[in-house]
Amino acid sequence: MVSETTEGVEHLEQMARRLRQHIITMTTAAGSGHPTSSLSSVELVSALYFGGFLRFRAGEPEWAGRDRFILSKGHAAPLLYAALAEAGYFPVESLTELRKLGSVLEGHPNMLRLPGVEASTGSLGQGLSIGLGHALSVSLDEIDARVYVLLGDGEIGEGQVWEAAAAAAKYRVGNLTAIVDHNGFQQTGRTEEVLDLSPIEDKFKAFGWHASTIDGHSLEAVLEALSNAGNYPSQPQAIIATTEKGHGIVPLLKELNDENFHGQALSAEVAEKALQHLGKVS
Amino acid sequence: MLIGESIGLEMGKATRDAFGHELEKIGHERAEVVVIDGDVGNSTRTEYFAKSFPDRFFNVGIAESNLVSMAGGFAANGKIPVVASFAAFLMCNSYDQIRMSVAFTHSNVKLVGSHAGISIGEDGPSQMGIEDVALACALPGMTVIVPADEPSARVATRSVMDHIGPCYLRVGRPSVPVVYNDGCSEFCLGKAIQLRDGKDVTLIANGLMVAMAMEAAELLAQRGVECRVLDMHTVKPIDQEAVAEAVGETGAIVVAEEHLQHGGLGAVVAYAASQLSSNSVPFRYVNLGDQFAESGPAEGLLEKYHLTTQDIFQAAISALESK
What is the ipTM of this complex? Predict the structure, then answer.
């Protein structure tokens, strides 16, 4: 399913860098958005879209046999848009239209306006339930498709996530993967201080899921975890990805004395430094 | 006296029963129908569907938020998910999910709120959906239906399933009199049904209040007052033409509903009338007002909270006096 050669990983590393640059460029052009929440999920999304996991047809977004990716942490929309553009859903040049009046690249994903977006999110906690609906629906139709849902670690404070977790286990949904981007921060501070839900892996296990914790910035680890999905045909799978909010530009955030830097764009000056810091993309 | 008895209406089944039986029938015809239940299938009557189609029935437990968002996922794959629970829990507990996973995405999800109104009786105000119509109407693109009796609830269920887009169907717990002996073949979403014509005043009602409006019209006729009676089963989109004609042709309006005063049928009719007609005509409202009810037998509650035939009658007299 996936090339795990060094070449494959290098390709994904390049893609991850490109996605990071897009995130910085588009949020700074918009003057707002959630770049740091997007940056922590970059390896996860790179591996899904460009590591051979998600089966999709950019020219046929509604293809019934596609795998579904649901961005439950909808504020990471810049990352989703960057991935969709790189995947060929729309031109990369359009990314700087983010958040502009009339643009389909809204502040949070809107499935009615942008092909490739599987769910309209932004009100946290709903994506896993929507994904469960997708997973059960494709199973009813005997379509071999997998559903991936990316959640934030602050987001899982929403009780609905655990309603969905219980229901997915009840229905022994083997084609559903939840990925929790455990970047350790939410809007006003550290998740362990705002609402500590650790140990997250154990919670999913207690609900009947297969769960594992990985380094969410190690492409090798992400690829391996995603590869294991098929090993549990009658059990939903949770991947707890330990990440760093703002990964790739953390030293710059430290200079700004704001490691969280939630829900704001970098100034043009800092963005320029960030792009340099991320390095050139071949 | 039972509702409708004074004009010879026979007692029929509850609208929730009509919904449940018709849904099961539709299940045979349409493989894309799935039902998601919050462990109240024997109350909402989705149990009939569950028995016939266990593979398409998902009881996800007492978790309304999850079940509504799941419906959004099913709908995205071309299924027609029916989500049924108590009106109070469905609309109030999972409102954000309805907003985001159903309305904002214009998903083809059918929301069915049972045990609506105060006529559920003894279980009391925590179980009474009295704000559900206002909440449903507030959401862009939502079609909102409140059928009057068993035959019209059957046709309404079928209409809601045929309609493409999000719908809210409100059904009740108690048995209600049969208004439509003929099976209500004239039922059409968004189109009021004129049950009686008159030139003096129009009684606009839905749900349980339709039978009472018919009774009130008969009482008024005995006083020489000719009433038009409209079953306004579709609250949204409102039948603007019927409202405009009622204002223009009868010059006085009474709106009766088993719902709070804010945001329900009365508010919707008044808004439509004020937009469509330059005539100033008296309006009177029969509703629950701005309060929660209490436990008690349905008949006693309806009387105490002024939702009776007599209340509609008095409202009409008051409107006529202001003409």
Answer: 0.94
